[in-house]
């Protein structure tokens, strides 16, 4: 391009100077604005035609007038919290008629004897079929084989009272979960147990295990400590002395609650050879 025409030339001509303008890019950019204006005009015309058609259609064919729905007001009264429920009155218990006595016949053991020795003949099978066999004979209604209820279930109220099972007051011998020491039992023995007691009392080398029984109450206290073994050499007395210091115990559990129960605790003494 000539230098004299640079100031007056279009920007697109400057970009495509000395380039091929016939392959299409120059043509697209040159007429781009014209195509955009045509597209906007066509879109606006179509939109105007559409809205105009809808407006004319509504005027020529008006729809049915919409009837508003009927609204029903519901008033919710607040609950009266102070109102107490009415007590349930049990049904009136009618006296039950006393059951009629059932006819009974004396049980007779059959023995073959002469007619002259028979004092009273036994009842026949038809009589026995409608009577109860007893040691005495009594009059009454025929036995139907259906037991008569002398007292209505639940004393006539319709409610069967559950019998309360009382658990023993004394300590349990066996429980679901035994009592346990609250802490490290081995460290407790190492601190308080005197392991030289059997040596001082002349015990021979060996391993001695004494068994001590005591009661752990629901508050975790220990009582009724007594030995179950008699190995001697002062070992039972030493184990009892130590257990009196162990006052922190978790009580045993039975039927989902804490109970007073026995606990058997072994204590082992080891006497080494010199």
Summarize the structure.
The chain is of the alpha+beta class and 274 residues long.
Strand % is 15-25%
What is the level-2 CATH architecture name of the domain at 180-271? 2-Layer Sandwich
Which stretches of 5+ consecutive residues score pLDDT under 50? none
Helical run tally: 7
Structure in words:
This protein is an alpha+beta fold. Among the domains are: 28 residues, no CATH class; 92 residues, Fusion Protein Consisting Of Minor Coat Protein, Glycine Rich Linker, Tola, And A His Tag, Chain: A, Domain 2.
Keyphrases for this structure?
Fusion Protein Consisting Of Minor Coat Protein, Glycine Rich Linker, Tola, And A His Tag, Chain: A, Domain 2, alpha+beta, two-stranded parallel sheet, three-stranded antiparallel β-sheet, 274 residues, 9 strands
Set down the secondary structure blueprint:
Layout: H1 11-15, H2 25-30, H3 32-60, E1 104-106, H4 125-128, E2 132-134, E3 180-181, H5 185-192, H6 197-200, E4 206-216, E5 222-227, H7 235-245, E6 249-250, E7 252-254, E8 257-259, E9 261-271
Parallel strand pairs: 1-2
Antiparallel strand pairs: 3-6, 4-5, 4-9, 7-8
